């Protein structure tokens, strides 16, 4: 699987390691979670109501297309959450994890 | 001291804060971003190194001025900036605010400078991963230094279409085609009025357009986005009706802007259908008074762009100071500049119109609501039951009830509802907003003020 986004500038930043669906990935300090995942993967998650996959849409916190799960803790909006070293993220809820959204 | 709450730290919110601080008040500014700037003057995270000239082009000096001004007011302790927080609800003089924790902020006066989102028209296939708004592509470039694809098609209409194509190319991205649904004759007809109101801005737009050369096509019809795990190609017809196919792996869509009026609605604004802007906008006077102690400014009030937003922010603060009986700057020069911005914006809207006919004619299988994949056909099927009224159609079809709360489907949905009833969109009515303005994790609602309380 290749990444969807192409880095054009600001590539000299420090590397940050994180996990996505159990795999070790590397992003850069200052990346949003969305940028870091899509630099290595083509999508963020499956759509709930259709066969296609989703990779964010507005990048400004307005469409809610980019919600992801953390291995422990609440869901987060990938386009507006800065990547942190050691994050453990999932494209879907862990089995038995209740819905967190109001 | 009177507590003035400003929501939004873009050009309108920053100028409103400055005007109030100059009058001796101490406003509180709540904003979703980590750093003040808004969308047009959005700042990258700390540690990014591209200079303002690279990020904002011809608008670099304005961006620098605004950022420096706001940072200074905050550093001097004259304005309180509360970043990375969303206002979810407003009632009885209290804002429910969600950041790392939930806070309640009581206020006496409220200035909403909530800006705008891209205005979207559905195109078959737009629900696929790899289709983004034009605004998203611009944010990705400015704030992250990335292109959202390797071969890009930009489609829609409005000034951002050309500007973004230019910015992406300058940064080294491959832009395969720029597809404008606005017919050339509409652009020419309205161009003179644009040039009269703002000659330099108009000229700059024409130069950018010319530099795109044969990538730019006016008067196109978008047929569908061919997808396979993301976009593969855009199928479209040129102004002469010839079928074309442009290979790509990313599509950016947008038809100018849609005012973000969700909080204005929750704050009790009344709304009027604006024929020039083809959307519902909060009712207010010339300075932005929308209710008792309640003001709207910037693109969330009327879509005048970043320069207009600065003026509207000043205007709202002046209205607030007038109502408090405090000394204030003279409103007349601000109102004159706003009138000129408005003449330009109306001409711009005529030059790059909303594609009403294309939306009304969308095939039944086209997804209208991206949140819940509800098709145009399903919406049309519920209309005999719901009648052609936007709110009833919403509750039966669920178009407008998804997570974006109608931000990206409402105008297209209203167009389809109106078309089926042979009515105008204005007659189909406006979707009422519900709190919260953003989906909020339950845990965040339980944690009040104390990060450890959960
Ligand atoms: S991509 Fe729209 S909210 Fe994140």
TrEMBL record, chain A:
InterPro entries in UniProt: 2Fe-2S-bd_N (IPR042204), 2Fe-2S_ferredoxin-like_sf (IPR036010)
Pfam families cross-referenced by the UniProt entry: Fer2_4 (PF13510)
UniProt protein name: (2Fe-2S)-binding protein
Record keyword Nuclease present: no
Domain of life: Bacteria
GO MF annotation, one: iron-sulfur cluster binding
Keywords, in A-Z order: Oxidoreductase
Organism: Psychromarinibacter sediminicola
From TrEMBL, chain B:
FAD/NAD(P)-binding domain ranges (all copies): 3-178
SoxA A3 domain boundaries: 392-448
An annotated Gene Ontology molecular function: oxidoreductase activity
Keywords in alphabetical order: Oxidoreductase
InterPro entries on file: BFD-like_2Fe2S-bd_dom_sf (IPR041854), FAD/NAD-bd_sf (IPR036188), FAD/NAD-binding_dom (IPR023753), Metab_Enz_Cyan_OpOx_G3PDH (IPR051691), Opine_Oxase_asu/HCN_bsu (IPR017224), SoxA_A3 (IPR041117)
Highest taxon of the lineage: Bacteria
Protein name: FAD/NAD(P)-binding oxidoreductase
């Amino acid at each position: 699987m290749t990444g969807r986004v192409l880095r054009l500038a600001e590539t000299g930043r420090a590397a940050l390691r994180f996990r996505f669906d159990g795999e070790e990935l590397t992003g850069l300090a200052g990346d949003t979670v969305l940028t870091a995942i899509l630099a290595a993967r083509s999508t963020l998650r499956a759509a709930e109501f259709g066969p296609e996959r989703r990779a964010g849409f507005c990048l400004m916190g307005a469409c809610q297309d980019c919600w992801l799960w953390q291995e422990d803790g609440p869901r987060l909006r990938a386009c507006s959450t800065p990547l942190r070293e050691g994050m453990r993220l999932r494209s879907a809820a862990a089995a038995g994890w209740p819905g967190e959204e109001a | 001291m009177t507590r003035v709450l400003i929501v939004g730290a873009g050009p309108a919110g920053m100028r409103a804060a400055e005007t109030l601080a100059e009058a001796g008040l101490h406003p509180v500014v709540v904003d979703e971003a980590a750093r003040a700037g808004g969308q047009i003057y959005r700042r990258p995270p700390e540690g990014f190194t591209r200079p303002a000239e690279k990020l904002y082009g011809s608008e670099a000096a304005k961006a620098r001025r605004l950022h420096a001004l706001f940072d200074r007011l905050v550093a001097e302790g004259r304005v309180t900036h509360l970043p990375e927080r969303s206002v979810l609800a407003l009632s009885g003089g209290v804002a429910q605010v969600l950041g790392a924790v939930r806070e309640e902020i009581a206020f006496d006066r409220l200035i909403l400078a909530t800006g705008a989102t891209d205005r979207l028209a559905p195109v078959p296939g737009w629900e696929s991963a790899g289709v983004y708004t034009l605004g998203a592509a611009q944010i990705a470039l400015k704030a992250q230094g990335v292109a959202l694809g390797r071969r890009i098609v930009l489609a829609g209409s409005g000034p951002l279409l050309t500007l973004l194509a230019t910015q992406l190319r300058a940064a080294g991205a491959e832009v395969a085609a720029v597809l404008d649904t606005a017919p050339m004759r509409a652009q020419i007809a309205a161009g003179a009025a644009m040039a009269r109101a703002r000659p330099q801005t108009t000229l700059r737009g024409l130069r950018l357009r010319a530099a795109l050369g044969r990538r730019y096509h006016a008067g196109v019809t978008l047929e569908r986005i061919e997808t396979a795990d993301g976009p593969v190609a855009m199928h479209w017809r040129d102004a002469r009706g010839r079928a074309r196919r442009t290979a790509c792996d990313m599509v950016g869509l947008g038809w100018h802007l849609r005012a973000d009026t969700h909080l204005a609605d929750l704050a009790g604004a009344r709304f009027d259908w604006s024929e020039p802007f083809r959307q519902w906008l909060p009712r207010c006077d010339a300075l932005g008074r929308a209710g008792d102690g309640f003001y709207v400014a910037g693109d969330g009030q009327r879509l005048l762009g970043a320069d207009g937003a600065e003026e509207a922010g000043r205007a709202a603060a002046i209205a607030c100071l007038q109502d408090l009986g405090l000394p204030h700057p003279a409103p007349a020069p601000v109102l004159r500049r706003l009138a000129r911005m408005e003449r330009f914006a109306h001409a711009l809207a005529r030059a790059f119109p909303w594609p009403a006919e294309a939306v009304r004619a969308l095939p039944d299988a086209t997804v209208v609501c991206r949140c819940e994949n509800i098709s145009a056909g399903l919406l049309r099927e519920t209309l005999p039951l719901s009648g052609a009224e936007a709110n009833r159609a919403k509750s039966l079809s669920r178009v407008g009830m998804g997570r974006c709360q109608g931000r990206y489907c409402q105008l297209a949905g209203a167009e389809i509802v109106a078309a089926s009833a042979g009515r105008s969109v204005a007659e189909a009515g406006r979707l009422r907003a519900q709190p919260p303005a953003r989906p909020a994790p339950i845990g965040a609602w339980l944690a009040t003020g104390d990060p450890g309380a959960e």
